[in-house]
Amino acid sequence: MNESMIFGNELPKRALRRADRSLRSMARRFSFDPADYPRLSAEPMPGAYEAFGVMRLEEAKPGAPIVPPDPGKGIALGTIRMGFGHYRIGLAIASAARSMGLTPYWLDLMSFPDSAASKTIKYLEDLYNLGSRLSQRSRLFDRYVWDRITSTTAKRLSYTARDRALSTLFEPILRDLPKGMPFMSTHPWTGQAAVRAGMEGVVALIPDNYPLAFHLVEGAVHTVQAPSLYMGYRTLRDMGGGEELFHALPKDDIRCVGHYVDHEIVSGVEEDCAARLRRIKDRSTRRFLLTMGGAGAQARRFADIAHACKGGIEKGKVSLFINMGDHAGRWAELKAWLDQDGVPYEMHDDWESTKAFAEEARTAPVRGVHVFLHDNFFAAVYTTNILMRVADLMITKPSELSVYPVPKLFIQHVGRHEVWGAIRGSELGDGTLETESDASLRQALRLLVEEDDLLEMYCGNILKNHRAGVYDGAYGAVHLALERRSDKARR
After folding, report:
1. 393, 289 in Cβ contact below 8 A?
2. Domain 5-261+473-490 belongs to what topology?
3. Residue-wise pLDDT tens digits, 97-120
4. How do 286-291 and 393-396 pair as beta strands?
5. How far apart are CA 391 and CA 385, in angstroms?
6. Quick one: which of 287, 325, 422, 425 could link to 434 by a disulfide (CB 3.0–4.6 Å)?
7. What's the pLDDT tens digit per position in 172-213?
8. Domain residue extents for the chain
9. What is 263-467's CATH topology?
């Protein structure tokens, strides 16, 4: 691979120099030694193994036998525990793979704390999380700094030079993987590392609905969730930084597969929508699910929503499910606001009791405010997935959750790249437009509490989309990975 070009387009020399400086800086800062890498061994992944048979690839313990992945029935999932989005996409793919009789093998580049790879990612993640939180506290920072970083900067092809260079630090972790094993990348850094490691069937899962060069992985086939995004990536739209690009993304390197959604959720769409419509008809307490993002940037907004719904909560019209993920610090902030506002709540911090709550909510009435907080990262993320099935509406920023088949109220984005998630959801008719201002959010909440037509419309459109295969992207991505393995074998 020619490191100075991507898909036939030459990268600016200044971008290549910056990329080289970044690589040398991180390698020096974190004492990178390419000859020192972990030996991988498979073991059940807590929570995810019980849910859908996920095996985690970890560094083998000294003296313990190494359990290699099964290249015949296995499929590798490369992810990064950076926020919740990439992790949740990995869970959707694992769920679909398991339903197809495959064994998902989970490889998280953040799981090797002594490696230069994990240290580099942690360093960059801390910067990203800081920016996300600042964007929610300062409109000026959000408009003039963070929106630009998460859209214009990451959109240019030149941005890929740094990530391709940094993959030198990540590649050693993948050396033990069988080269012919399907590899599905939920984050471009894992995809870049897999290509550099010589993996033959790499599938790069594009997460957002806004075309960013950041997600491109030359040497992989890319999957997207919407036709507009297919066009955006196929043409490398506006990725030249003002310069015309004469080479497009090859058509063999991209597929539109649909939304990445867990098998359990897709297979339950009809049942879950029927339950929502039944609760609407029976005038049952309306259930709103508020879900915290991985950067923990929405605590103040959640307090505002609870305040706006306080009267409805007291009258039994509204019940709030608030999933704080693993953000104990953000929960401390929200708790102080709820206590000050006189909003009572019930705490759920045990995974087994959380699952029992979600199961009971299928048939039993629910009242009040329920807060969920888990130390285990799987439980922190997957709580949203099981609660959305028994909620009437999910209140979320337009992130990776914008593609899920549940009625959605979109609050303010955290990063400009998320805006198009709300546009996609509102056009498909399974979610609202983005409510950026407090006034528009409160107005939407009042209507969703007092009136039925929006929720009925969203449920009807979810059923139409489901029958059209809109939410089948996880299956499509796994099928593509298996096809690529077959094609490689025939060659």
Report:
1. yes
2. Rossmann fold (3.40.50)
3. 999 999 999 999 999 999 999 999
4. parallel
5. 10
6. 422
7. 999 989 999 999 999 999 999 999 999 988 999 999 888 999
8. 5-261+473-490, 263-467
9. Rossmann fold (3.40.50)
